[in-house]
Amino acid sequence: MDPLTPSQRSRNMAAIKSVNTAPEMIVRRIVHGMGFRYRLHVRALPGTPDLVFVSRRRIIEVRGCFWHLHGCKKSTIPVTRANFWRAKLKGNARRDERMIRVLRRMGWRVLVIWQCQTVPSRRELLERRLLRFLE
Ligand SMILES: [Zn+2]
């Protein structure tokens, strides 16, 4: 069903998923500070999820608003080569949704944190959401 070979797919995913981004580091620092322990970028799971809490069967994905087409004001499609970007970014968003469906079917609970939700002014809200999800 998937037209890509595994090596093509992993190259593709590597291009889309930039690891250790600033928003991801913010989320990692918060949950670590709350005492939760996790595994990072688990390749054995579909889509190589960012933070995996194995015994709690929970996953946190941290996404850049532009690359994953959040729909907020950070995620506008560039004017130059708009068609190219629209197709590319929509493709990313579709793949994200597919991965989440697969993970949920496998019994994982998945929380998506967007880049724009990690800014300092929203920190308190972010902490509450993370705690509620992980407890
Ligand atoms: Zn956003």
Structure in words:
With 135 residues, this protein is α+β, with helices and mostly antiparallel strands. It is 44% helix and 13% strand. The protein contains 4 helices and 4 strands; from the N terminus they run ααβββαβα. The chain has a 4-stranded mixed sheet with strand order 1-2-3-4, sandwiched between helices. A hairpin with a 4-residue loop joins β2 and β3 (58-63). The longest helix is centred in the C-terminal third of the chain and has 24 residues, at 82-105. The radius of gyration is 15 Å and the shape is globular. Zinc ion is lined by residues 65, 70, 72, 74-75, 114-116. Zinc ion binds next to loops.
List the helices and strands and how they pair.
Elements (H helix, E strand, L loop, with lengths): L5 H11 L5 H12 L5 E2 L10 E3 L4 E6 L18 H24 L3 E6 L8 H12 L1
Parallel strand pairs: 3-4
Antiparallel strand pairs: 1-2, 2-3
The structure holds zinc ion.
